[in-house]
Amino acid sequence: MILGRVVGNVVSTHKDPGASDIKLLLVDRVSENGTGRGDYLVAMDSVGAGPGDIVMIVAGSSARMTEMTTGRPCDAAAMAIVDMVEKDGQIVYDKSGKT
Amino acid sequence: MILGRVVGNVVSTHKDPGASDIKLLLVDRVSENGTGRGDYLVAMDSVGAGPGDIVMIVAGSSARMTEMTTGRPCDAAAMAIVDMVEKDGQIVYDKSGKT
Amino acid sequence: MILGRVVGNVVSTHKDPGASDIKLLLVDRVSENGTGRGDYLVAMDSVGAGPGDIVMIVAGSSARMTEMTTGRPCDAAAMAIVDMVEKDGQIVYDKSGKT
Amino acid sequence: MILGRVVGNVVSTHKDPGASDIKLLLVDRVSENGTGRGDYLVAMDSVGAGPGDIVMIVAGSSARMTEMTTGRPCDAAAMAIVDMVEKDGQIVYDKSGKT
Amino acid sequence: MILGRVVGNVVSTHKDPGASDIKLLLVDRVSENGTGRGDYLVAMDSVGAGPGDIVMIVAGSSARMTEMTTGRPCDAAAMAIVDMVEKDGQIVYDKSGKT
Q1: Closest approach of chain D CAs to the CA of A18, in angstroms?
Q2: CA of C77: which chain E residue's CA is closest?
């Protein structure tokens, strides 16, 4: 899985039925400490993520294994909101801001 | 999913039956604001997209999960025509031209 | 799907049964106008492609969705011989040579 | 499969049920001799790996084929702890430290 | 599929049951004429490949379609030992050494 920050969303009215009733998040890939890369992708929201959240993205066929994405034409799903990333014994990202 | 602009199409008469009766779009990958990258791929059209449209592309096995692509040898499908992309609270792409 | 030019083939006598009785094409990835990239891959032939043909390659699990590749250990299949590529209203590749 | 070193973990309370009760490892991709690349991914732990371990990561749909990951929204699983890597007749990585 | 040279192997005692009783090959990706790239991956051996052999690697879910890898957590399998690669009418790799 990769980490990304929710930075916006994508709006579409004309789409395959499998993309109905689910939020399409614009996500910026981030490094392990939450730094953005300017490398954007669109992920279906499986977890109620909001702007600024660091999320864990599952890709490929496994993106269809969340409760919200079963059977959908979905190759990327935000499946977890990240609270903390620990690396080499240090907290390198903390959602509460206490890094 | 990734975003791309429909820039043309691919014509083939000699092909696997699974590629019959569906449009093969030439798509240029675009950044989140619709800027082209000159990085082309071919996607099956699941949504009736036309030249110039920014579409959302679903890849991998999930490309076979749209109504139009079930059971086809398809690893990329244009599954939604994008109306708007919002990033950091700004509209960075608007199909109607009002960016 | 991506585009590639058939430039040769791969011969193997010692192989998994799933690779028997199907041609293994050496394919050079090409840009949308047929220019080679020197980036080679091996694809199973699902369409009777010959040397010099520009083919459409389907990758991943969808490579097993052609008539010739069902159930095979195949992650790339040449599924269509390309006649023409149209981009921005221009024919940028024409098999008959009239570009 | 690729090789990676377990360097930390990711904590999330708000997540898809399929990510419950399994450890989310922060993994640094390594070269064949165990040298880190600073290219991080998150993998579900299928093998009880600990900090510093070099693990073998299986990706894509096959990441769901371990005992621990069946049916989960998982595209990367640490499925083996590496004891030794032999290359060109030399041991280039040895967990016990005797390289 | 891609081509690679078997340059060694990976040893693991602590692993998912699905990785038992199968050889884990260290493979160097090679160009079409067999030149190494120093870009290593681990592949399960489905064909009895030995050191120095150029093999054809199948990746993704299709890596589970060989006789040896069915149901295993395997995203890369060596499925064929390459005898010869022909490119533009020339033999660019010949296992017997007569290039």
Answers
A1: 18
A2: E1
Model-level pTM? 0.96
Name which of C46, C62, C82 is nearest B10 (Cβ-Cβ). C82
Which residues, in sequence order, are CB contacts of C54 under 8 Å at separation 6+?
C3, C4, C5, C30, C34, C81, C82, C85, C93, C95
Q: Enumerate residue ranges in chain C where pLDDT < 70.
A: 98-99
> Cβ separation of A42 and B2 shorter than 8 Å?
yes
| HSE of B56, CA atoms in CB hemisphere, 13 A | 33
The whole-angstrom separation of Cα C40 and Cα D80 is: 31
In chain C the first and final C-alpha atoms are separated, in Å, by 22
HSE, side-chain direction, 13 A CA sphere, residue C23? 17
Q: Cα(D67)–Cα(E89) distance, rounded to whole angstroms?
A: 48
Residues E36-87 have pLDDT tens digits of 999 999 999 999 999 999 999 999 999 999 999 999 999 999 999 999 999 9
> Residue B63 to residues A66, B79, E43: CA-CA distances in angstroms?
17, 8, 26
Using alpha carbons, select from E23, E56, E52 the residue that is nearest to residue D87: E52
Q: Which residues of chain A have pLDDT under 50?
A: none
Residue B99 reports pLDDT greater than 60: no
Residue with structure tokens 């992708």? A41
- Going along chain E from its start, the domains and CATH numbers come out as 2-94 (2.40.50.220)
Confidence of residue B7 (pLDDT cuts 50, 70, 90): very high
Question: Nearest residue of D to residue E24 by CA position?
Answer: D1
Q: What is the distance in angstroms between the Cα of C29 and the nearest Cα belonging to chain E?
A: 13
Amino acid at position B40, single letter: Y
Band of pLDDT at residue E98, cut at 50, 70 and 90:
low
Listed in sequence order, the residues at least 6 apart from D66 whose beta carbon sits closer than 8 Å to its beta carbon are D46, D47, D58, D77, D79, E16, E18, E73
Look up residue D48 and give its amino acid.
Answer: G
Stretch 23-82 of chain A: residues touching chain D, C-beta under 8 Å? 31-32, 46-48, 56, 58-63, 65-69, 77, 79-82
* Burial (CB count within 10 angstroms: exposed 0-12, middle 13-18, buried 19+), residue E90: exposed
